[in-house]
């Protein structure tokens, strides 16, 4: 899909679909106590999502962020997994497929800021340097992942 078309669809979705609330549904942290954090630690971040209809004009998106931190010796330092649930609604009458596709289109951009703060704060609390989830070029990400459904 061309970037201009994708931008128009994204802009339409972000204007029609609103986030009512977002909250953590699952959070797991595991720190390996006897492993030391070294310069050059590697952070692997995996982000996935799914959407579902709750009722007419209301849907949910789940954003799962899995993080593995390995030190320069390839020893696992920490594992963090968080799932955020966002409740979305629209005041317009949309077909179910269009509504869910629009939620799918905007879910990451709407929920990633919540996960970013949670993970950054908790990484410090378990004694490792803060883990920062980088900003995402949403349009490039959507384009690269179009057709991939969970």
Determine the N-to-C terminus distance.
Answer: 20 Å
How many distinct folded domains? Answer: 1
Biggest sheet strand order reads: 1-4-3-2
CATH class descriptor: Alpha Beta
- Low-confidence regions: none
If you average the pLDDT, what whole number results? Answer: 84
CATH level-3 fold name: Bacterial Protein-export protein SecB
DSSP, total strands? 4
Order of helices and strands: HEEEEHH
| CA gyration radius, whole angstroms | 17 Å
**How many individual helices?**
3
Biggest pleated-sheet summary = 4 strands, antiparallel
The percentage helix is 25-40%
Form type: elongated
So, the CATH homologous superfamily? SecB-like
Q: Structural class from helices and strands?
A: alpha+beta
Short description:
This protein is an alpha+beta fold.
Looking at this protein, list some descriptive labels.
elongated; Bacterial Protein-export protein SecB; about 35% helix; 3 helices
How does this model look, in words?
With 150 residues, the chain is of the alpha+beta class. The chain has one domain: Roll (Bacterial Protein-export protein SecB), CATH 3.10.420. Helix content is 35%, strand content 37%. It is built from three helices and four strands. The protein has helices at 3-16, 96-125, 138-145; strands spanning 18-31, 42-55, 58-70, 76-89. Strands 1-4-3-2 form a four-stranded antiparallel sheet. A hairpin with a 2-residue loop joins strand 2 (42-55) and strand 3 (58-70). The two termini are 20 Å apart.
Question: Could you outline the blueprint of secondary structure elements for this entry?
Answer:
Layout: H1 3-16, E1 18-31, E2 42-55, E3 58-70, E4 76-89, H2 96-125, H3 138-145
Antiparallel strand pairs: 1-4, 2-3, 3-4
Helix pairs in contact: 1-2, 1-3
């Amino acid at each position: 899909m061309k970037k201009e078309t994708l931008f128009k669809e994204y802009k339409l979705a972000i204007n029609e679909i609103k986030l009512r609330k977002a909250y953590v549904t699952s959070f797991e942290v595991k720190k390996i106590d006897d492993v030391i954090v070294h310069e050059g630690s590697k952070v692997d971040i995996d982000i996935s999502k799914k959407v579902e209809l709750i009722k007419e004009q209301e849907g949910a998106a789940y954003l799962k962020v899995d993080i593995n931190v390995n030190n320069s010796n390839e020893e696992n330092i920490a594992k963090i997994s968080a799932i955020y649930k966002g409740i979305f609604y629209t005041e317009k009458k949309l077909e179910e497929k269009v509504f869910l596709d629009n939620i799918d289109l905007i879910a990451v951009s709407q929920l990633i800021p919540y996960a970013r703060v949670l993970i950054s704060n908790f990484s410090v609390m378990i004694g490792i340097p803060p883990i920062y989830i980088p900003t995402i070029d949403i349009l490039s990400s959507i384009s690269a992942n179009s057709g991939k459904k969970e």
